[in-house]
Write a structure and sequence with these properties.
Radius of gyration: 20 Å
Number of strands: 13
Distance between the termini: 50 Å
Order of helices and strands: EHEEHEHHHEHEEHEEEHEEHEHHHH
Helix content: 40-55%
CATH superfamily of one domain: NAD(P)-binding Rossmann-like Domain
Structural class: alpha/beta
Bound molecules: nicotinamide-adenine-dinucleotide, 2'deoxy-thymidine-5'-diphospho-alpha-D-glucose
Strand order of the largest sheet: 3-2-1-4-5-6-11
Length: 353
């Protein structure tokens, strides 16, 4: 048996593949375009594992995807491939529409053709699992109830709008063609191999490099944080037991302001890698806010807990300590990732702030 993963050289996709191959016999075909966010080094541990077949390519390339599906005959497609960074979507939304909307459309079409030719149990058992985000639901006030699976969509950034559009296409392919789709909407992930453009790895990297740790606005925006390994476990649960056509929200039940996150990172670094010149808090800086910055995300994930028996294993305290430790132990990985183009992005995003 085989699963077909897209975007498996990125942060969550790579964590998913590493865990999948450690826990299952089944092989994985990994289609990834290797954009700036894709990094084959994330998959070094499975380099010699014949169950991992890596193909460099674009989810929009129908001929390639249809050929790979026909050749490997997967029992499921899991779509992680996306442009994923909100600030980049503000700076240049087109790539987001191309990959997240047009790409998901082409992947759905390829899946529909492939699934249409399957027979009997293979056809019934096939799944198209689409990995989405809580950002599609928009922004909450401090006293609002968390997002549920029936909260109306209200995306506020080009990134979340493109993910919302892809979710609608996935829904339509189930309703119209009967494609056995599953959608997960997850909150903010953190953990090993996250690209240091996102809050947690960026703050760790900047602190260690003695650079400003830039908090947008008043630092009081709230996110609901989940350790990436717990997200991967939730995806495995949904793949095995989720009901076709259903949506599952996923989160760590763990709301924190950005200020709390950055203070925690400083405390952990002060403990694990003390700087003789003083606490890392001295690098914390407030900068101009992100346009359209969603104030608060909070996810009600009780459906997946109740129906599929999933629960996060990592607390924020254990997960963030593991994460800071990983970044300290993998300085070489970070240094290689932040060389080259990354510097241009930092200059562009933070230069005028
Ligand atoms: P990422 O940016 O780290 O990785 C994305 C991967 O997709 C990269 O390897 C990239 O090369 C690949 N890719 C991009 N365009 C492609 C294309 N056209 N064809 C093939 N591959 C392509 O993203 P991530 O943080 O790992 O997120 C993975 C998925 O999870 C995304 O769909 C994202 O929307 C969703 N998500 C992320 C979070 C989070 O906190 N990171 C939370 C909820 C949902
Ligand atoms: O909620 C799920 C989403 O979480 C995913 O769908 C996205 O792919 C992922 O990037 C993430 O989006 P956010 O915008 O919430 O993540 P980011 O790490 O960019 O920012 C987290 C918070 O930290 C947000 O309120 C903005 C703030 N921030 C971010 C950066 C990069 C700062 O204050 N300073 C920064 O330099």
């Amino acid at each position: 048996m085989t699963i077909f993963v897209t975007g498996g050289a990125g942060f969550i996709g790579a964590n998913f593949i590493l865990e999948w191959l450690a826990k299952n016999q089944e092989s994985v075909v990994n289609l990834d375009q290797l954009t700036y966010a894709g990094n084959l080094e994330n998959l070094d541990r499975v380099n010699d594992d014949r169950r991992h077949v890596f193909v460099r390519g674009d989810i929009r390339d129908r001929a390639l995807v249809e050929r790979l599906l026909a050749e490997h005959r997967p029992r499921a497609i899991i779509n992680f491939a996306a442009e994923s960074h909100v600030d980049r979507s503000i700076d240049g939304p087109e790539a987001f529409v191309q990959t997240n909307v047009v790409g998901t459309f082409h992947l759905l079409e390829s899946a529909r053709v492939y699934w249409g030719k399957l027979e009997n149990e293979t056809k019934t058992a096939f799944r198209f699992l689409h990995i989405s985000t809580d950002e599609v639901y928009g922004s909450l006030g401090f006293n609002d109830a968390p997002f549920t699976e029936t909260t109306p969509y209200a995306p506020n950034s080009p990134y979340s709008a493109s993910k919302a559009a892809s979710d609608h296409l996935v829904r339509a392919y189930h309703q119209t063609y009967g494609l056995p789709t599953l959608t997960t909407n997850c909150s903010n992930n953190y953990g090993p191999y996250q690209f240091p453009e996102k809050l947690i790895p960026l703050m760790i990297h900047n602190a260690l490099a003695h650079k400003p740790m830039p908090l947008y606005g008043d630092g009081m925006n709230v996110r609901d944080w989940l350790f990436v390994g717990d997200h991967c476990a939730a995806i495995r649960c949904v793949l095995e037991a989720g009901q076709p056509g259903e949506v599952y929200n996923i989160s760590g039940f763990n709301e924190k302001t950005n200020l709390e996150i950055v203070r925690t990172i400083c405390e952990l670094l002060d403990e694990m890698q003390p700087d003789p010149a003083g606490s890392y808090t001295r690098f914390m800086t407030y900068v101009r806010d992100r346009p359209g910055h969603d104030r608060r995300y909070a996810i009600d994930a009780r459906k997946i807990c109740r129906e599929l028996g999933w629960a996060p294993l990592e607390t924020f305290e254990t997960g963030i300590a593991r994460t800071v430790r990983w970044y300290l132990d993998n300085r070489g990985w970070v240094e290689r990732v932040v060389s080259g183009d990354y510097q241009n992005w930092v200059a562009q995003n933070y230069g005028g702030r």
